[in-house]
Amino acid sequence: MNSYVQVNHLCKSFGQGDRKLQVLKNINFTIEEGEFVCLIGGSGCGKSTILRLISGLDEEYEGEIFVDGKTVCGTSRERGVIFQKHRLFPWLTVAENIGYSLQHTGKKEKYEIVQSYIDLVGLSGFERSYPKQLSGGMAQRANIARALVNNPKLLLLDEPFSALDAFTKIALQKEMYRIKEGKKSTMLMVTHDIEEAVYLADKIIMLSPKFPTGEKIIRVDLPRPRDRNSKEFVELKKYFLIIFSVIR
Asked: Which spans are transmembrane here (predicted)?
């Protein structure tokens, strides 16, 4: 595998003068092409800030960020973003929301592309539904499809399942990994849910100022599909919980 994302000596502060607050200090990590990586850490440690910087939504930082060998400069369709809230346009149907960024695509081609992603996320039959007519899980499925429709090489997810009930969250975690494998995408997800991280991730990046370098990177070598009730899964989850309790 080749390093697709490379973060070198990343520092980020907010505010000015005496009120300046440094949230990221000398963060270093790489993400290999095709990997699913989870970022975990306490509130305010800079997880979502890292996602915004890699996405290009925030361009003020110190250090280096490379995606596919190129310095990140602004946003790009090669980097899709999925936020915690679905942010679907309430006046557009599911199909219209998903196809919104394909405005310069031919009508027939656009229909085929949109339909393929509706099928991919399991929303067939809801093409003409509006966001208010969808459950939380269905709206997030539409949100995922909208992020994937441009076929981004890198997908950045900011706690996309945190507002969902436990059963819907588990179902969408499975769907997310199935989609990742099918699309051969590289994914970086922020989460507070350690079980979610252990279930999904190839490696986990834990952020805390208590670490000497600001981060700790641990590979998750459990076989797939992963069984949440297996001895190995439970033990690894306990291991991360112990670390997390110390670094918060």
From this structure: none
